[in-house]
Amino acid sequence: MSGRPRVVMEADGGARGNPGPAGFGAVVRDAGSGEVLAERSESIGVATNNVAEYRGLIAGLEAAVELGAAEIDVRMDSKLVIEQMSGRWQIKNHGLRPLAAQAAGLVRKFDAVRYQWIPREQNRHADALANAAMDLAAGKPGVAAAGAAAGSDPSARARAQEVAAQGSTTRTSWEPRPASTATRLLLVRHGETERTAERRYSGRGDVPLSERGLAQARATAVRVAGLAPSVAAVVSSPLSRCTATAEIITGVLGGKPVAVEPDLIECDFGAWEGHTFAEVQARWPGEMNAWLASPSVAPPGGESFRAVTTRVRRALAALLAAYPGETVVVVSHVSPLKILLRDALAAGDAFLHRLYLEPAGLSIVDLWPDGGVAVRTVNDTAHLSTV
């Protein structure tokens, strides 16, 4: 008999409107005791109900895989997802097919999978988590306790409150607070490279700055010096396109040494490295669709945005601990900077594919010890007008 556990997974998802601000929730329980082994909840920006429900299914399956489960009973109040995953209904919506394919790939990791439709009243825990996530996606973190868990049991209601708190530590008040107590991050994307100019995926490949990229870095250095004459540190990704940009900035600031932070390195794009978006879409259409649909999916041989998020948050925590109340220049890449801005704005994952950051663009974020956040500038390129 296998020592791997048998689990029950309940999942739900929805949107405030269809499409609208969306989120999902998933709960994994021990099949024998009913003990909660794992929970997942996430706001996903603007999406449809069906997309959110599939995302909840995927998150629950991923959690069960991480637990090493051998058998899983999947219970959802989405008739569509249950019937499609059971193979009884066709998946006619092309946008759902990559999500169903991703779920099917996870299903193959179990010895046995059983699907069961349940009424919403029996899916209260996942429903509360999903509603709390939807409230966060709609910009209403304080509503979760009252509205998201309506009709749920007390434990689900409490968990909904916890999810809301985890999703945004930012105080909702516009009360002014002294800038001197904030850690100010000047977020700089590295200057242009040949791959940047050709719009090719450039991840771990160490591509140098082009001549135009060097000029952009010099213009950015002058802008940074004008904005922040007193800088505690200049922190950079280890790749040369970033360290070169950072060194030009430190030269203008007075020659401070560049502090290299490995966690600020670009996402590993694996097999897509050096290819254009069109080339990837032509050669890896299924993988591309799955990657665009979920931050948990990695390019072939690469790294998922969820993995990037883990290390970027770790780097941010280290910066806040090392430089409280000071100004720090952070020179990095598109993916890490987008994740920092997504978190600062309490945005959903769709933000990662909608925000464009120019080479040598500048963003400014203030972070206070009490969790307050002020995003002052995003992708400012005024200093590049003559480059």
From TrEMBL:
MF terms in GO: nucleic acid binding; phosphatase activity; RNA-DNA hybrid ribonuclease activity
Positions of region (Disordered): 1-22
Gene Ontology CC terms, in alphabetical order: cytoplasm
PROSITE patterns: RNASE_H_1
Top-level lineage group: Bacteria
Active site: H190 (tele-phosphohistidine intermediate), E266 (proton donor/acceptor), E266 (proton donor/acceptor)
InterPro entries named in the record: His_Pase_superF_clade-1, His_PPase_superfam, PGM_Phosphatase, RNaseH-like_sf, RNaseH/PGlycerate_mutase, RNaseH_domain, RNaseH_sf
RNase H type-1 domain span: 3-135
Binding annotation for substrate: R241
Name used for this protein in its record: Putative phosphoglycerate mutase
Species: Micromonospora pisi
